[in-house]
Amino acid sequence: MSESDDAKTMAGGLEADPADRNADVTAAAFRLMSRLKMRHLSMLKNIERHGSLTRVARETGISQPAVTKTLAEIESLFGAPLFHRSGRGLKPTEMGELAMLRASHMLQELDHWASEMEAVRKGYRARLLIGAVPYVPGSLLTQAIMALRERHNIIIVIRQATTDHLVQALCDHELDCVLGRASAVAGRDNLWHEVLYAQRPVLVGHSKLLKRLEGRRLDWRSLASMNWILPSPATPIGARIVELFTQAQVPVPVPIIETYSIDVMHGVLSKDESVISMVPEDIAVEMSRRGGIGILPWKMDWELPPLSLIRRVRDVPLDAEEKFAGILRELCG
């Protein structure tokens, strides 16, 4: 044995040969592929949902012995306990947490697969699940999805929410891609983003309010006394508004309505001249075209985090997703 081998032995034994590690991984993968079944995935999902074998049996209509046997099969596949048993139910081990997460992703992907197959059966090329924050201009989204359908015969499902919720849905395999703020991707190795364009914020209000404030200088103290519609402080624009009032050393206004809904904002702003809000400029332009509101003549010297296309890291990108990305580049370039 060499001196280096002696040192390894003294440190706690010989290091595993990489070939042995690869063989172990291959064997584990083969075991899963040959023995893992849909009922195992469903059982893991049910355990995650209900927290105990008794509740799983009651809610699914499966006998308790059958539930216990299925869990034993699953743990045999992984060669280790996946849950700690107690009178209060099941608490997942670290491996159990991973197993439930992977099972959830696999079931979600199978559901998408079934929906895509149904779309193809009906004559479409594919089905794409898109998440979009409310501050994506309707004109951009409309042009993109129309081009996707007309050029490539792809049908689209759109979900709207804040970036943090959409990014979590993307990580959970509930969405294929997200139009949102790139800042939400930080620290997530399983996601990547492509910047589309930057958005500049503006103040919006009733047309009569616009006339009253015309010619005045931007005064955060006066603005703080007004009625505001604001998104949550957890959103990029909400956080920035809090920061602006704090920097101006004036109290941060408590919004009369906290919402991200463009329809609600427009409805209230167009009827109440005492209310004000802040939105991206391209959204403000679309709102003003509906009538009743306008953009206040004060320019902000900052930009929101860029609007980006956020995607999961994949070995092989989805063709429909690539087509969508190409159309967005055309429209935003």
TrEMBL record:
* Presence of the UniProt keyword DNA-binding in the record: yes
Domain HTH lysR-type residue range list: 36-93
User: Which branch of life, at top level?
Assistant: Bacteria
* Keywords (A to Z) from UniProt: DNA-binding, Transcription, Transcription regulation
| Gene Ontology CC annotation, any one | cytosol
Q: Which Pfam families match?
A: HTH_1, LysR_substrate
Question: PROSITE patterns this protein is in?
Answer: HTH_LYSR
Family that this chain belongs to: Belongs to the LysR transcriptional regulatory family.
Q: What is this protein called?
A: Molybdate transport repressor ModE-like protein
